[in-house]
Amino acid sequence: MSSTYMALGFAVVVCSWWLHIKSIDYRPLMKNQIFTAPVVLIISAKFSMLLGAIGCIGAWFEKKILLFIYIITMIIIFVALLLGVVFVIAFNERVAMTARKELLENIRQYPGDEGVDENNFRKTMNSIQKRFHCCGVDQYQDWFNADIWIGQPYVPDSCCIEEINGCGKQIAANETYGLIYTNGCFNMIQMEINRNLMIVGILAFVLVFVEGFCIVAALGLLCYLRQRDRYI
Fold first, then answer.
1. Where are the domains of the chain?
2. Is 62 left (phi over 0), alpha (psi -120 to 50) or beta?
3. Using one digit for the tens of pLDDT, what is the confidence trace for 62-72?
4. Can you say how many angstroms the Cα of residue 181 is from the centroid of all Cα atoms in its chain?
5. Which helix (H) or strand (E) holds 187?
6. CB 142 within 8 A of CB 150
7. Which of 7, 17, 105, 151 has the fewest CB atoms within 10 Å, i.e. is most exposed?
């Protein structure tokens, strides 16, 4: 069973790394810690692989001390992962509200096309607006609050359906229909992040389930060895 757990741990590490790399695209947009979920899962899975090896050695050589270490550490990881899954489910809405506020604040501090983009927000937001065919957080008017434009009805060129240099500053004298994307990006970003979090949650749940089975199996073996040694 421990060898199966090691293999599962390796699979979880690979999947979590993939999710971690995918989440890098969204980090400049938000500062909240939702993106640490794959990292936590990677660390837990690596510990799981190490513990799987300890469990295999303890079971093969019937070493009670190794089995005891295996059981205690597995219980700690089991509780930590379980709490992590509950946290993601319970605080998902609160995290979304925080993320929305951070996005709006980043738009307010938008550096423009020529300003210093220290946290890569401009590059990331432009990429997302082109990818999802959206503009702003909730609506395109969110860009009107950018300090650099002092209330002017301007949007970045990445909001334009046909991106031409300076097209985002031409909507004041024209209708927006057919010129720029008018739907906000937040719902689409949230759907993408939630999809990744769902995968993390499923992996964590599978890991928790197998961990529980391993703990019970290791406890059974440890009790058997103690009973056997008592009569030797």
1. 2-94+189-230, 130-184
2. left
3. 778 888 888 88
4. 27
5. helix 186-230
6. no
7. 151
